[in-house]
Amino acid sequence: MNAGLSGRFAVVTGAASGIGRAVCAALLDEGCSVAGLDRDQAALDRAAQEFAASPLPVDDPRPPAPDDGAPAPGAGFMPLCLDLCDEAAVQAAFTSLAERFGSLDLLVSCAGVSGPVGTPLEDTDLREWRMVLDVNLLAPFLVLKHALPLLREGRQPAVVLLASDSAVVAAPGMAPYCASKAGLVQLGRAVAVEWAGHGIRVNSLCPSVVDTPMSRTDLEKPGGFADAAFPVQSPEQVAQQVLFLLSPRSGPVNGTTLLSDFAYSARSAFPA
């Protein structure tokens, strides 16, 4: 996909694995400079090494990195390790990015946890509930809050929040996750309305099951989903959907939610 994003500066949270990592790769292929935020330093380092080793597109417009090794706009991938639930750490990260880049064009919030999958509500520990809501809802709030000054200076700025089809449908034993993702969708709608005057678009993406390390663990599929009785997306497919929502070609699309679930939520449960 040529999304018209060449030369833009992007921030991606949850960048070390799964959907976040695939989004980083897709943005780099588009010719973007990407700051990847994650709490896993080792996984971030591995991602950075692999991105650095990947060949650039033939017509890649990015200039070489400065001699001091500091990333410049369009120069590639910059890993930043931090706890996204720590407001001081998030504020410091965006202050640093503001000093280096001056503006932010694209923001993708991918960091998330599933929590106690399969645990009935009455057995859900308060600490587990708070952990899921902190990572899936509090952290995006902090990222949005402290990214706003940079986004105001960006070129056709756009934000994508990675939610889930669990924002609109539910399964037993997933109350914390469902609540957090539904809250994230409505947060995106509220912010889209609030920031429309700044020219900042905010949309949410709700995929069904995606083949990531987290979903393999949750659904006890360590070898993958080849034998699954339901369709499963790849992280790369989700990344292409993110590019569509970020692209200036989808400029009128704002404050909405893209549900990509193979039409499962559209099916009737009526026994006819």
Mean pLDDT: 91
Number of domains: 1
Tell me the CATH architecture: 3-Layer(aba) Sandwich
Helix-strand sequence: EHEHEHEHEHEHHE
What class would the helix/strand composition place it in? alpha/beta
Helices, by number, come to 7
CATH superfamily: NAD(P)-binding Rossmann-like Domain
Termini separation comes to 41 Å
Largest sheet: 7 strands, parallel
Your description of this structure?
The chain is of the alpha/beta class and 272 residues long. The protein has one domain (9-266): Rossmann fold (3-Layer(aba) Sandwich), CATH 3.40.50. The protein is built from 7 helices and 7 strands. It has helices at 18-29, 41-53, 87-101, 126-152, 175-195, 213-218, 235-246, and strands spanning 9-13, 33-38, 77-81, 106-109, 158-162, 201-207, 257-260. Helix 1 (18-29) packs across helix 7 (235-246) and helix 4 packs parallel to helix 5 (175-195). The protein starts with 8 loop residues before the first strand and ends in a 12-residue tail after the last strand.
Secondary structure blueprint with pairings:
Blueprint: E1 9-13, H1 18-29, E2 33-38, H2 41-53, E3 77-81, H3 87-101, E4 106-109, H4 126-152, E5 158-162, H5 175-195, E6 201-207, H6 213-218, H7 235-246, E7 257-260
Parallel strand pairs: 1-2, 1-4, 2-3, 4-5, 5-6, 6-7
Helix pairs in contact: 1-7, 3-4, 4-5
Can you summarize this structure?
This protein is an alpha/beta fold and 272 residues long.
Features:
alpha/beta; 39% helix
